[in-house]
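User: Can you predict the 3D structure for this chain?
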Amino acid sequence: MRCALVVLCLGGLNLQALAQEGQKSLSFGVVPQQSASRLAEEWGPLLAEISRRSGVALVLKTAPSIPVFEERLAKAEYDLAYMNPYHYVVFHQSVGYQAFAKEQDRRIKGILVVRKDSSYRKPADLAGKTVVFPAPAAFAASILPQAEFGRLKIAIDARFVASHDSVYRAVASGLQEAGGGIERTFEALPVEIRNTLRILSETPAYTPHAFAAHPRVPAAIVSKVLAAMASLALDESGRGLLTPLAFKGVVGAQDKEWSDIRALDINLLERYGKQ
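Assistant: Here is the predicted structure, written as structure tokens:
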């Protein structure tokens, strides 16, 4: 799928009818950890159901790469967005995005993956090797593993590709020695790819990705969306829509929960600082 915008009209949901009732559709940006086609497959039905339960028409938007997603966040192109914890800290400060939810029972940590049949057993074995990452500012998949290499004084050749899926496929196919990712996207891989890989190491854990709203979105609308998201884990149909994303559920969250990220004092995206 080449289009970066997916209009949701699944499961009997009629966005035009919602609009006629006075409900303007809201754009819902999702960080492109996977390809646009996979995002549409996994997030499309989920957002359609959230739209149905909340009465708020949501339109899925993504971007061709994580850096482009960052640019669109900086321009406040998304009404609501699912973004990594570092993105949230940056764009809360510079644009005003406000966290309202996060994944249930998840602390995010970076992982390093290698082929299951490789000889690598510890990060030091990768000294001097090429290790691929999704993007420079991909928090858990890029920043945290590279910080661990730095802490351990292990020199690697860091390269960047388009997405988490690109990392996993490159390593699984033998094109690259190792790569960075996160547990959620690793768990959501097609089984035939996941079974060719193993996790070599993990980083410390932090507050996970944020669901955040731009200040232009009324609080009452955000509350409706949150209630619908939280209800998904309570019934079989909702849980079925969460499964492809490897989510147990979605719970409410507050800005202060990302203080652990702020304490890291990372400045990779200083160009998007307070205007």
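The domain at 110-202 is CATH 3.40.190.10 (D-Maltodextrin-Binding Protein; domain 2). The longest helix spans residues 36-54.
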